[in-house]
Design brief:
Radius of gyration: 26 Å
Structural class: alpha/beta
Strand content: 5-15%
Strand order of the largest sheet: 3-4-2-5-6-1-7
Helix content: 40-55%
CATH topology of the largest domain: Rossmann fold
Oligomer: single chain
């Protein structure tokens, strides 16, 4: 590994070694090669372009989609002693012009901008006069029309390349991307034979669960009560639902904020700032909140409604546990969520081809919500990783309920679908099997089928859930249409011939509130769910960090991460050398904050 890169990592970030994939990407960039990095949230994507930016001449241009993310990253860089700035719509004309002059004068190593800024001829003229060795594109999946968050403004990035001589190295990063999206990123950003690194999608510190048919308000109330000392995000699919959940959580006496596109930009910024600074414990938000959010100590993410696809879900769920400590991701599923997402697709102005793709992705999300397999493994396989082991921590892996042989019921479902010529949906299939007196059933003469009424002993909801489980297990599939029809798959033949059996776990009557409660050894230390050597000192260090952060107008995690404070509690450093050996304490941070933390540790020891 490049010795200068190791030295920069130690000096500015306070770490002695790179994480998986980081060194490969950094070396490729320093060798003048384009790169594509697919690294899950918390894996350290930013360092992969920040270290080269420090070592390369000139200024590195970082394309980032969110104003709040830019500010957090620039604050963190400046605190670590790295000259960085941003230019976006939050600045006045005067501030923008001042920063442009400072950039032109060579005062910064990194410049963060939104993709929309690239449409400004004034900005492009500035760039033409600069030495730009590297362009880093964060959240690069936004360039793909097949990704979950396509942004047309990302298409302006390639046009910028024509203005820069010599051509800079292009580095694209994102947390999640299917094979189709990866190829789209390479094509649309014109990456030249990029070095590719995918570090794996599995997040071993996250406990995932899907809760079906729960009373959502009751579940949220119980969960928030059990995790009263932890930071979390609750996602909802619509503005109205955000307002409703926010009012409910607020009524519980919990410090909570709300975030959606219907609020003013000032209100959204104020809410996110309060959350970043630990003044607000929970955010209730639409998916407008959080892409690239830098807050490291989010301990849980609850989806009050099912997202539109697995890419969006994993991006949002992955905001838990960025610091590597245990986190929990809960999806509260109800059939109405599917109706809502279909409505969004129907009302969009996308092409028919795009809509068909969106329906397919939605069906994959529904299958995830009903699978009995390891939830983590289901996700990593969705992204193309075939090799993997069950996580051992998700709700399905820890489920001790006995498997029930449902082969005969499954055979009856398969027969009914066949008799209905594989042309109808799950709900009508269930009604036929239950022998419902329905006008549509009489219209198609389905009341004359041999399978009509053969499963009348089952209630409709468990029957619908069983059909969805058979889809998730690969016996059936849903068509990629606005009104998906259920179809038979090849494994059905073995079941019908008596060569294999079908097993299924019945839905629990009262789903557990938490997969992680009580397993972490936490002593209610203000949101950390990893064991702490000395909870009293840890809390004192957190309070000191909060006072410093408030005084400087920064989020606390910009000063030091929770993991750094925990290591201080374990190592009990008594001098500069010992403090500098704590992970996350770089030279600039020690210079600014080290003595205050040393004094507190020394006072606590005395």
């Amino acid at each position: 590994m490049n010795p200068a890169a190791i030295d920069a990592l130690r000096t500015y970030y306070g770490y002695d070694r790179f994480r998986a994939g980081q060194s490969t990407l950094i070396e490729a960039i320093l060798d003048g090669k384009d790169v594509l990095g697919i690294m899950p949230t918390g894996a350290g994507k930013s360092i992969c372009y920040q270290i080269p930016a420090i070592l390369l001449p000139g200024v590195t241009l970082v394309i980032s989609p969110l104003i709040s993310l830019m500010k957090d990253q620039v604050d963190s860089l400046n605190t670590a002693g790295i000259e960085a700035t941003y230019i976006n719509s939050s600045l006045s004309v005067k501030e923008t012009n001042e920063r442009m002059r400072d950039v032109a004068a060579g005062h910064y190593k990194l410049l963060y901008v939104a993709p929309e800024r690239l449409e400004s001829e004034y900005f492009r003229e500035l760039i033409r006069g600069l030495e730009v060795p590297l362009i880093a594109v964060d959240e690069a999946h936004c360039v793909s029309q097949w990704g979950h968050d396509f942004r047309p403004s990302y298409m302006t990035i390639v046009r910028l390349l024509r203005d820069i001589e010599p051509r800079p190295v292009m580095a694209a990063f994102t947390a999640t991307a299917t094979d189709v999206v990866k190829e789209d990123i390479v094509e649309r950003l014109k990456l030249r034979e990029p070095a590719r690194v995918t570090t794996g999608y599995a997040r071993s510190n996250l406990a995932m669960s899907v809760v079906r048919n729960a009373d959502k308000r009751d579940y949220v109330a119980r969960y928030v009560k059990e995790h009263s000392d932890q930071a979390g995000i609750i996602y909802a699919s619509t503005r109205r639902e955000v307002e409703s959940v926010y009012s409910f959580v607020h009524s519980l006496g919990v410090p909570v904020g709300k975030y959606h596109a219907g609020l003013s930009e000032e209100d959204r910024a104020r809410t996110q700032d309060a959350f970043q600074r630990d003044d607000v414990q929970i955010i209730v938000a639409t998916n407008a909140f959080g892409m690239g959010i830098d807050k490291s100590n989010v301990r849980f993410v609850i989806h009050n409604n099912m997202p539109k696809n697995l890419e969006a879900y994993y991006q949002e769920a992955g905001r838990a546990g960025r610091d590597g400590d245990p986190g929990e991701c809960v999806l509260l599923f109800s059939p109405q969520d599917v109706v809502t997402q279909k409505f969004f697709i129907d009302q969009s102005e996308a092409s028919d081809e795009r809509k068909r793709n969106d329906y397919r992705l939605l069906n994959d999300m529904v299958q995830y919500s009903h699978t009995g397999d390891c939830l983590q493994l289901t996700i990593v396989r969705y992204f193309g990783e075939e090799n993997g082991e069950p996580c051992g921590t998700c709700a399905n892996c820890t489920d001790t309920r006995e498997q029930k042989d449902v082969t005969e019921d499954a055979k009856m479902i398969f027969a009914c679908i066949s008799e209905m010529k594989q042309r109808f949906g799950v709900t009508l299939t269930a009604k036929v099997l239950r022998g419902a007196n329905d006008a549509k059933i009489r219209q198609f003469n389905f009341d004359r089928l041999r399978s009509y009424g053969r499963l009348k002993h089952m209630a409709e909801k468990p029957l619908v859930q069983l059909i969805h489980a058979l889809v998730a297990d690969g016996y059936l599939r849903m068509s990629d249409t606005a009104y998906p029809v259920v179809q038979l798959m090849e494994p059905v033949l073995e079941v019908m011939r008596g060569e294999s059996r079908v097993y299924h776990k019945a839905e629990p009557e009262a789903p557990p509130v938490s997969r992680t409660s009580g397993r972490s050894g936490s002593s209610r230390s203000g949101g950390s769910s990893a064991p702490v050597a000395n909870a009293e000192l840890f809390n004192a260090l957190r309070q000191l960090r909060k006072r410093i952060a408030d005084g400087e107008g920064l989020p606390p995690f910009v000063i030091f991460h929770d993991a750094t404070l925990r290591e201080m509690c374990e190592a009990m450093p008594a001098n500069e050398r010992a403090m500098r050996s704590v992970k996350g304490v770089g030279a600039a941070k020690y210079e600014k904050y080290g003595q205050a933390f040393l004094d507190l540790i020394r006072h606590h020891s005395d």
